[in-house]
Amino acid sequence: MAASIKEVAQRAGVSLGTVSNVLNRPDIVSPQTRTRVLEAIEELGFVRNDSARQLRAGRSRTVAIVVLDVSNPFFTDVVRGAEAVVEGAGGMVVVCNSGGDSAREHRHLDVLEEQRVQGILVTPVSDGKQPRLDRMAKRGIPVVLVDRGAGLANQCSVAVDDVLGGRIAAQHLAERGHKRIAFVGGPTSLRQVADRLAGAQAALSEQGLAAPLVVETPVLSVSAGRQAADEVVALPAARRPTAIFCANDLVALGVLQALTAHGLRVPDDIALVGYDDIEFAAGAAVPLSSVRQPREQLGRTAAQLLLEESTDGEHHEHRHVVFQPELAVRESSAKKRRGTR
Amino acid sequence: MAASIKEVAQRAGVSLGTVSNVLNRPDIVSPQTRTRVLEAIEELGFVRNDSARQLRAGRSRTVAIVVLDVSNPFFTDVVRGAEAVVEGAGGMVVVCNSGGDSAREHRHLDVLEEQRVQGILVTPVSDGKQPRLDRMAKRGIPVVLVDRGAGLANQCSVAVDDVLGGRIAAQHLAERGHKRIAFVGGPTSLRQVADRLAGAQAALSEQGLAAPLVVETPVLSVSAGRQAADEVVALPAARRPTAIFCANDLVALGVLQALTAHGLRVPDDIALVGYDDIEFAAGAAVPLSSVRQPREQLGRTAAQLLLEESTDGEHHEHRHVVFQPELAVRESSAKKRRGTR
DNA sequence: CTTCGAACATGAAACGTTTCATGCGACGGA
DNA sequence: TCCGTCGCATGAAACGTTTCATGTTCGAAG
Is the CB of A55 under 7 A from strand C? Predict the structure, then answer.
């Protein structure tokens, strides 16, 4: 069905090698032959067979990114960043979705390995050691870890400093004059949640403030946030926090809704800071202050590291890049707290 | 670097063809030879070269999906649906992101064609005729259009009936006793918006109700919704609608925020229905009624049509499947309007 | 003891490229 | 006139599989 180089050669009345030259080094073939070949290609609707090309060449121009969840805006932004870099370098990105399922991740990696992709950006499902990935690294397939396992020896990695993020948020609230601050989010078994909490605790203790009241939620969702806020509201006024730092914007939105429903005003009665700066944070009823991660940047850098490693080959020095989050200050934490308490 | 079948054969002391048999039809090779080969594979860390396999076999087990926007939950759900079906059939899905950019779409399709993928699910950037896609169809690459161009002759397609969606929403509000209903959304040059509006208009006219007040927005966003709601609120009470149907949930959320800010209660003063049933619709301050599209189903069906076409080959009858949206009724439109006016 | 078939294993051909050493004119300089 | 070069085209080899017609061996049936 599909025409091959051979048929093109025949039709153009040239040899097979010449057609290949037209395709790959058009400058070394005479203009007239070239146009003749190009015409033949056009007429036959010839499309290069990438399998054959790759088989011969040994290398591919495809970079894969295996994400935990295609529907998570964090990853989609990372993907966009990676695309920008890879396409800029003439390559192509394919996105694979592990969906947090270890078996699917495994299957994806298998296939990608068989495809001999140029390299893989991956946020592995499990956080620990990765013999699988080590093996690939050893085999010469560049792997860059995204938002995971900074510090492993066999791969480059990019990540965002969640401890710092928690610190920034808490510091901001402290500067605004808040003394009783709560942390809402969970489960703390998630590294991200634990880090953000740790950062907040550290910042508060440095400022000489009391440790935050921690309201742990089972998941990071709007409704979990609402329930947690109900608990907070139920506290006697004297012990009620004047500010809440949420582990994530979904939780923060839930908290915001519940507070509003109870007649408490944000930020006057209780200030609020979220995390992730999702699209809805700025669009919330009270625009939400939120810790922003440089998501596209993360993807761009990951892709750059990958391409570097791909070029360097053998003697590549693995690097671990850690980005700093920053705070987007909006109305939910805008005002200075007047007076003490 | 990477071991080949030949080396495996050598190490296992068998012929090259036998190794291939172990890989592809393990049953026809004796257990002892098989284990010997498998051991060799293990020891050498052999990984099949898919390029060679595909070159020889001529066909691929990869299905591509080219989406308009990876960060749009609509598409990510479609992707998940397609993945379920394709992986169930032993294939693999790769996701490509055109980002609404025609040139990128083109490049993606080029590459996919070169890769000889099994088929392509695509929501083309431009809505009209697609000589490009026709060409692929002619060449025998199955293409299924997603949410576009139902009615074109050369491809299968799946879509959701937006006219019906608009109709359902308006009907629901009419049943709740609303007489003055507004439509907020735009630009109406978007087919989706126009269809939803048309459906709403049809339903209202059938019910003998006045045509809806149309507040056109420049885009479908939260802030556009807020602005539109400001306009509505500014109307004299006698002309103010008692219900608003929004072209999309983002707009509806904006409207909800603005109404609340103006002291109007939802649904008591004004009822609200959105479209898309995004995750935040149920989690909004007032849980939002919304027209839900069967997004995963869309992806599943698209993938099924693709696989069918792939199997049928020549004499395949293109099909156009249109799904019906349904209304998720929540608090924002829950109550019956008491009395007339 | 021969013959047949079953059960496996074998090796060469083919898939469509890219690459590279080689061929072939023509042209300019000695 | 001859040689060296330059510019371009050529064709065969190689990439790693799968497939298929062809061996080979062994045991059972005649």
Answer: yes
Closest CA to A66 of A118, A127, A108: A108
Which bases of strand D sit closer than 7 A to a protein CB? Answer: 7-12, 14-21
Q: Is A121 in a helix, a strand, or coil?
A: strand
Please tell me the distance from the alpha carbon of residue A175 to that of residue A197, in angstroms, as a whole number.
Answer: 18
Residue range B10-42, pLDDT digits in tens: 999 999 999 999 999 999 999 999 999 999 999
Q: What is the pLDDT of residues B233-267, one digit of tens each?
A: 999 999 999 999 999 999 999 999 899 889 999 99
- Determine if strand C comes within 7 Å of the CB of B25: no
> What does the block give as tokens for B23?
């890989």
Nucleotides of C under 7 A from a protein CB: 7-12, 14-21
Chain A CB contacts of B79 under 8 Å are 70, 97
Q: What is the pLDDT of residue B150?
A: 62
Q: How far apart are CA B260 and CA B252, in angstroms?
A: 12
Nearest CB neighbour to B70, from listed A95, A104, A135: A95
Which residue in A71, A80, A113 is closest to B47 by CB distance? Answer: A113
- B104–A87 CB contact, under 8 Å: yes
The answer to whether the predicted template modeling score (pTM) of the entire model surpasses 0.70 is yes
Q: In what order do the strands lie in the sheet with A213-215?
A: A213-215, A181-184, A243-246, A271-275, A289-292, A326-328
Task: Determine the distance between A252 (CA) and D19 (C1') in angstroms.
Answer: 61
Residue among B80, B85, B19, B77 at smallest CA distance from B53 = B19
- The C-alpha atoms of residue A133 and residue A149 are separated, in whole angstroms, by 12
